[in-house]
Amino acid sequence: MEDKELLAEFVVESQEHLADVENQLLTLESQGDQVDVELVNTVFRAVHSIKGAAGFLGLEVLGGVAHLEEEVLNRLRNLEMRPTSNVVETLLKATDCLKSLLDDVETSNEQDVEEHLLALQAVLDGSEPSSPKDDAQEDDGNSEPVQQSSAAEETIREFLIESFDNVEQLERDLLALEETPSSSELLNGAFRSIHSIKGAAGYLGFGKLERLTHAMENILSDVREGVLDLRPELQGAFFQCIDKLRQMLTAIESDGSDASSDADSLSEAIVKLHEMLLPAKPKSASRTKAADAAQDVDTAAALPSSNNST
Predict the structure, then answer these.
(1) From the centroid of its chain, how far is CA 86?
(2) In CATH terms, are 2-125 and 133-302 the same topology?
(3) Could you say which of 73, 79, 100, 129 has the lowest number of CB atoms within 10 Å?
(4) Sign of the torsion formed by the C-alpha atoms of 266, 297, 290 and 227
(5) CATH superfamily of the domain spanning 133-302
(6) 177: CB partners within 8 A, 6+ apart
C-alpha cells in the first residue's frame, strides 16, 4: 500500500513539474541566441526531480528518458548548445514521452522508448541526418548516395504521416475551440500541431509549407498570450489554411515538392490579417465606429477566395 501511495504521489508531483515545460521550451526556441539561462534552469530542475524520484522508485525507463533530456538541458544552460528547432522539438517529444509514461506508470518499465533515447542522444552527439536535398545533390549513381536517398525518402514518409496526423488534430482542436474558445489546453494543442509541421518543413526544405505554418503559428502564439482573441475571421482563415495544408502535403506525397503550390499568396494574406487584427497603439481616446467597420471590410478582403485554385 505504501509503495502505491508513493507512486501516486510521484505521478502527481511529476505532472505538476511538467505542466509548464512545453511553453517554457517554446519560449526558449523563440529566444534564439539570447538564451534565458534561468528559464533553462527551471526546466532542468523539473526534469532532474523526475529523474531522481524515478530512480528511487525503480522506474528505469522513465528515468532513462529523463536522464538524457536532463543532459540536453544541461548543455543548453551551459550555453554549449543553442535551442534550435530540432533541439526543442526533440525535447518536446521527450517530454510528451514522460507524460505518457506517467499516465500508465505501473507498466512504464515495459514501454519501448528507444526512439526518444536515440533522438536525444543524437542531439547530444551533435549528429543530425543530412537533409533530403543534400542527399539528392550527392546522388551520382554510386551505392552510398542511393542508400542516402532511400533514407531521405523514409524521412519524408514519416514526415507526411506525422503532418497529416497533426493537421487532423489541429482541425479537431479548432472545432472544439469554437465551443470553448478560452481553453488553454486546446490552444496549446493547436499551437503544437502547427509548430511541429513548421519545424519539420523547414528542416526538409519545404519553404512554402514552412512559410504558411509560420504565419499561422505567429497568430496562435498571440492568441495563447492573450494579445488576440480567436475571432470568427481567424477561425475561418485557419480552416482555409487547413485545406491548403492538406493540398500541399498531398503534393509532396505525389511529387516530393511543394513548389507547385500557390500557398505563398495565402501566407501573405494571413500575415496581413494578423497585422490588421493586432491591437493598435492608441493614437486617440477611442476609435470611431466607422474605423471599426472599415477594418471589418479590410479583414474580409485580406483572404483570397476559398474558390481559388490550389
Answers:
(1) 10
(2) yes
(3) 79
(4) negative
(5) HPT domain (1.20.120.160)
(6) 183, 186, 187, 190, 230, 235
- Decide if 59 contacts 108 (C-beta within 8 A): yes
In whole angstroms, how far apart are CA 27 and each of 37, 169, 207, 221? 12, 22, 23, 10
The residue among 218, 236, 299, 258 whose CA lies nearest residue 132 is 258
Residues sharing a CB contact under 8 Å with residue 51, sequence separation 6 or more, in sequence order: 63, 66, 67, 70
Report the CATH number of the 2-125 domain. 1.20.120.160
* 186: nearest Cα among 245, 243, 235: 235
Tell me the C-alpha distance between 163 and 267, whole Å. Answer: 18
Which residue has cell 526543442? 88
**What pLDDT tens digit does each residue of the chain (310 aa) get?**
357 888 899 999 999 999 888 888 888 887 778 889 999 999 999 999 999 999 999 999 999 999 999 999 999 999 999 888 889 889 988 998 999 999 999 999 999 999 999 999 999 988 654 444 444 444 443 434 334 357 778 889 989 999 999 999 999 999 999 888 888 888 888 988 998 898 888 888 899 999 999 999 889 888 887 888 888 888 899 999 999 999 999 999 998 888 888 888 999 999 998 888 887 655 444 444 544 554 454 545 556 655 444 4
pTM for the predicted model, two decimal places: 0.61
